[in-house]
Amino acid sequence: MSKDVPIRVGQDGAPVDLRRSLRVHRQVAGRIVLEDMSQARSVVIRNISMSGAALTVGEWPGLPNTFHLLMRTGPGGAASRLHCVVRWKIGPVIGVAFSEALPAGLLRSLTGVSEVTLSRAG
């Protein structure tokens, strides 16, 4: 599955970021579990926001458009499960949207970023 994503540009010709919330660039371990629990695989969360993430999944023929992403806040930390919908795929990397917003506290504990920097200005 591959989608061409149109890029909107501003008056200065620079790309306009249309994301609903800012992304934090961190390499965090995660695990994809299919909804029917038939398969699971470790992935790397490349960046994450309250509304979605980019994941390095490698080659996974037949990866469905929806699945669960499991994450831990640290060694021995509580696991969080997020329902994801695939929005785009470029090689081994996919972009997903979360069905429900990631709580700011969980995003802070995963990334160490303060609450002030999590919301987009404007």
TrEMBL record:
Pfam family membership, one: PilZ
MF annotations from Gene Ontology: cyclic-di-GMP binding
InterPro entries for this protein: PilZ_domain (IPR009875)
UniProt-listed Gene3D superfamilies: predicted glycosyltransferase like domains
Protein name from the UniProt record: Uncharacterized protein
Origin: domain of life: Bacteria
Highest classification ranks of the organism: Bacteria, Pseudomonadati, Pseudomonadota, Alphaproteobacteria, Hyphomonadales
Organism whose genome encodes this protein: Hyphomonas pacifica
